[in-house]
Amino acid sequence: MRILIIEDDVKLCESLSYQLTQEGYSVDVCHEGDDGLRWIFEYAHDIILLDRMMPRMNGIQVLKKTRAAGISTPILLITALGELGDKITGLDSGADDYIVKPFAFEELLARIRSIIRRPRQWEGTPKLNFGDISFQPIEKQLYHEEKNCTLSKRESDLLEMFLRNPSQILPRSVLLSRVWGPDAEIEDGNLDNYIHLLRRRLKSVGSTLVLKTIRSVGYCLEASND
Questions:
Q1: Residue 102 preceded by cis peptide, ω within 30
Q2: Which domain holds residue 41?
Q3: pLDDT tens over the chain, length 226 residues
Q4: How many Å apart are CA 79 and CA 95, to the nearest integer?
Q5: pTM confidence score
Q6: What's the CATH code of the domain at 142?
């Protein structure tokens, strides 16, 4: 399970990072909104802990830009602003939950577990487009020009993850958690098998998209440079 912390309080970041690592989570940390946005756009995480009050680009701005880009990673806002109006603003801007400083680490863990347990319900258009393909998740139909094919549920879920995070490196842990579930007991080889199947599906419809292997990290769906 991979968590991104975007928080300008360095000591709080260090404390949360240490405690979450002790709980078995992989943690990435940054201290500014614009840097956090770069992490969000370039990498995938299971959940983002986002400070609301930061200089230059605050948490609400980061949140709105993230949702506007179609990225649906769960976001937990962390802030000292605890008034009702502040909570409503955060939730209406796209946050999944809200925790007010100071808080007990045990409460933060409980909120993280609660968010991760929620079923993933993708929002937005039913058709996803990237490069030379389009995909309809509900029908599990992959299209390229005049060709199309029907994917299995697992293939469909996997392709949807890539299409909702185009050109981003998706770590193996994130793919396994999102597609198979956070508590699923499966072997890494299962993911490799489905990546192979997905590559064959893309090839069968004539797509030039490349599903790249990022050694020791995960995979990335990119448009071909040819």
A1: yes
A2: 2-117
A3: 789 999 999 999 999 999 999 998 889 999 999 999 888 887 778 899 999 888 889 999 999 988 887 777 899 999 887 777 777 888 888 889 989 888 999 999 999 988 877 755 554 456 889 999 999 888 889 999 889 999 998 899 899 889 988 888 888 888 887 787 766 677 778 899 999 999 999 999 999 999 999 988 899 999 876 5
A4: 12
A5: 0.61
A6: 1.10.10.10
